[in-house]
């Protein structure tokens, strides 16, 4: 190709390019216009019906979390409703409260008003009636007396009863009825009537005398004596009373010996009655309610064997005893349970029962398999440093890692520290103590346990370190360890 | 043999100097406006909106924020709302209504450290499924956000405990061709590229390009994964064919040495996804075209499908600046129009001609 043609071509292309660019610019201009219109239209447009968007990703996963928190807030709300905060400025609350109170008081007042009205109305009627009734009971008394004189005591009693119903304030009627009862030897009723009459009229000598007689017949000598003494007070020189009193004192002297014996017997019988009697119900009659577990509180010290209270004189009690004996075996079972399911909530319950049953001077438990067992064993051996010492001695320091996989329990930690101070210092090498302290310090939550040390516990730790220091068997780990223990 | 003059031309249509460090620029969809994000000298963030008016870029709004704004996207917003999601130096993800940008529409403390990169999908009619925003941060995590859910991300991709956390430099959405499927690709400073499948919530693929990954972009977000371009710190970029994944070899790729310096960004032409622009650390722009091979997959010796990479050809290159070009964005509405920002504190509106003749 010749160079002029190439130059020409180049020129042509340059021109083309320029044209192209010009075209583009023109296009751009018109596009600008168009797009600006479009833009303006878009910005004027208001939400053109929300598109249905797909759900939020992983929403279900979040929902689970959320719903939980929601529930908690809801319950919180409920709680708030139940126990609304009583703020002084919460006028609404107080208003409401007052209104309620007022409404209460008004209603009760209304009721009382009503009652009073009724009372007034009825009292008018009663007054009218009373005169009539008075006449009636006098009449009944007269008739009763007449029957009594005739010896028709039952009829007399009927009359007196009617009279009492009509006028319950008259002391004569019950006293007379008591006399009639005495005649037909119904001493109990006689006594009651006399008491009634005395209540109505405390200076009614005859009533006392009659009650005295009734009581003699009932065997209540000492009480009868009191009654006759009262009669003598009211009516000095009452012959009946004097003779009765003499009789009573005689009889009382005779009876004192017997009575004492009787009392003894009675008390014995009472003692006997304390026994639990086994109830043997057929299965279909037994309660369908599930048995409730009664929590047993731990009380330190020796426990008396329950046999003291239970006397074995029937089958039911024997079975109780058998159970007691069987418990020893159950303990073994429960121990197994505990070791296999240390997290089961029932395990602790079983453990507690076992503790309460076992005397503190039981056998030394073996090397614990987990922290639960260790904790329980420590609790059981509490207050027995010798046992605790031998128990802890069994546990190799390296075993603590395995025991306290989850975390070091502060209580257990303090217990160990205490035993270390009490027993290890006098019996063991400082090296062992150091080793144990070191292992403990490497356990999880150790820092927490240290943080919660009380003054005396800190003193224990200090004593331990002093012991180690005195033995001069310290190594390079000693100082950092001391720091770890907060010394 | 065509002469260089027959190739597309890249012409700086408008140049505008600003008084702050430019990090990112984005066209506002369906408008002649674009936003620039950056860092003012006094340490605060700035957001500027420009509009093209007869060959000029006119500043129409300027909004200052407390934290420097590193990156932004409209990708998760509806066309009608056109909310801008931004990531800032403090690790906050904010969504702004540009008409009332005083308070964010959505705000979350997304990361502990600077948000390096952001991408959105599900908005603007691009990509099926819920609108989501993905952010990558120096704290090593990649988090996916749904603006309907407060405070917590819908997905969080972070290094396994114990593994060292890598600075995440770039994230990209893709594979959003139906309601369920969606993938996030993340590139890290150690050269790792990780592809997360959001449907299965699993890592689908990972590779290392032995160089910091500066930018990742799928050619299209709203189709099945097709191509992925990854640019690196030392001038190379890789184009992966994402259609065929070999169980051991992964995706086939072609590597091209493009610039003599860092390839800061890559952007596919929205109107023709075989064409893409890379921006270089020396202020150069390279326009590339990807050519598919005759067959995109073949069987290997064991009869398993494996991808075949195509070839990449350079269409045009131009040096606009002496400083790195930090970002570029093609106008979604006007073919051949794009905006770029560079560290010489200049915003450029560029025209690329002859794109319809490719």
TrEMBL record, chain A:
Signal peptide: none annotated. Belongs to the RPAP3 family. Keywords: Coiled coil, Repeat, TPR repeat. GO terms for cellular component: protein folding chaperone complex. SMART domains: TPR (SM00028). Residues 71-88 have a biased composition (Basic and acidic residues). Transmembrane segments: none annotated. TPR repeats lie at residues 137-170, 205-238. This is RNA polymerase II-associated protein 3. It holds the Pfam family TPR_1. Residues 37-88 are annotated as: Disordered. The keyword Coiled coil applies. The keyword Coiled coil applies. Residues 238-273 form a coiled coil. Residues 368-458 form the RNA-polymerase II-associated protein 3-like C-terminal domain. Gene3D superfamilies: Tetratricopeptide repeat domain (1.25.40.10). Residues 60-69 have a biased composition (Basic residues).
From TrEMBL, chain B:
SUPFAM superfamilies: WD40 repeat-like. One of its GO terms (biological process) is apoptotic process. SMART domains: WD40. It comes from the Eukaryota. Key assembly factor specifically required for the stability of axonemal dynein heavy chains in cytoplasm. Belongs to the WD repeat rae1 family. This is Dynein axonemal assembly factor 10.
